Amino acid sequence: MDDVNRLGRRAIFDLKPYVPGKPIEEVEREYGITGVIKLASNENPLGPSPAALNALKDAINKVHNYPDGNCYYLKKELANSLHLPEDHFIIGNGTDEILKMLGETFLNPRERVIFAWPSFSEYDFITRLMGARPVTVPLRNFVHDLDEIARQVDEETKLIFICNPNNPTGTIVDGQDLRLFLNQIPSGVLVVVDEAYYEYVTAPQYTSAVELVKEDERVIVLRTFSKIYGLAGLRVGYGIAAPKIIQLINRVREPFNVNLLAQKAAVAALQDKEFLQQSRDVVLKGKEYLYDSFARLKLEYVPSEANFIFLNLKRDSREVFMSLLKEGIIVRTGDIFGYPTWIRVTVGTPEQNKRFIASLEKILDDRV
């Protein structure tokens, strides 16, 4: 065939493939160095829970069997933890898969999807994949502009995504503001609240949207085991919604979509409350150190309720990114979010944070 592109569905040519953070192994190969640290993808620097690792060891000899397609034990554990019936949950191969299932379940071509920008790029990807139309609303002072999002809603709007805390800024939507926002949204519009970083939040005005699920069938909450639980490599996330919504999403869910090892590790991770607190404490203390360091270096940053910080270097972030790579440190450049002088840096262990600051200070001094 002369032009194979003609075979492709028209919508896929509008897609911008997701570019993940640079892997440690790739940097070590390229630069011939060892001991590279990755502060780019908001992973848990402590790794997974010891209980999750033990669960993986116990389950490894069972991988010749298909996993439980219903994720019975994981749903049961989530139900106990969040005080909701098990029919309020859907489990996915990461929240990325759940986002895709939401698109496949609810979006028709030309319908509108509203989300803030900058925010998680997968919202745009899923919208375009389904041939729907993305409507982006700029953040106001790095925070979701809920009033403007509400004003953008029309009769063709189907979905609204709210990332709370927001990636890449780490800012939150106030619980009361979110409730008032919902009162402005028509009944035929679904509101998806992505709480990937929920476990890190300390702000008293923050309220999880899980409470709203109990009151409003339009609300869908997403969470993940990839961040504080340290299971990013296993790919497991979950959605929380009214049973009627879950039943619809299950119509497009692939059978056996969450592997056996991921299910076992996620159950164990949920039960390990001590490790969860330890992981939270590392981030809270790390943010204090980084905030103090940024103040000393006279660098602007956005106070964060997540495990990362959005930082203004006042110079080309990609140049600094390349210099940090040579120092064995991987961060995320802000140009992909429309902020070419900013970076997003994940909070690491105390040793990793100190190494990052020392390298950053050296690089900035060299460029004065």
Automatic annotation (TrEMBL):
Its EC number is 2.6.1.9. It is an enzyme of class 2 (transferase). Pathway: Amino-acid biosynthesis; L-histidine biosynthesis; L-histidine from 5-phospho-alpha-D-ribose 1-diphosphate: step 7/9. SUPFAM superfamilies: PLP-dependent transferases. Its cofactor is pyridoxal 5'-phosphate. The keyword Cell inner membrane does not apply. Pfam families: Aminotran_1_2. Residues 35-360 form the Aminotransferase class I/classII large domain. GO terms for biological process: L-histidine biosynthetic process. It comes from the Bacteria. It catalyses: L-histidinol phosphate + 2-oxoglutarate = 3-(imidazol-4-yl)-2-oxopropyl phosphate + L-glutamate. The modification N6-(pyridoxal phosphate)lysine is found at residue 227. Gene3D superfamilies: Aspartate Aminotransferase, domain 1, Type I PLP-dependent aspartate aminotransferase-like (Major domain). Keywords: Amino-acid biosynthesis, Aminotransferase, Histidine biosynthesis, Pyridoxal phosphate, Transferase. GO terms for molecular function: histidinol-phosphate transaminase activity; pyridoxal phosphate binding. Belongs to the class-II pyridoxal-phosphate-dependent aminotransferase family. Histidinol-phosphate aminotransferase subfamily. PANTHER family: HISTIDINOL-PHOSPHATE AMINOTRANSFERASE, HISTIDINOL-PHOSPHATE AMINOTRANSFERASE 2. Homodimer. This is Histidinol-phosphate aminotransferase. It comes from Thermacetogenium phaeum (strain ATCC BAA-254 / DSM 26808 / PB).
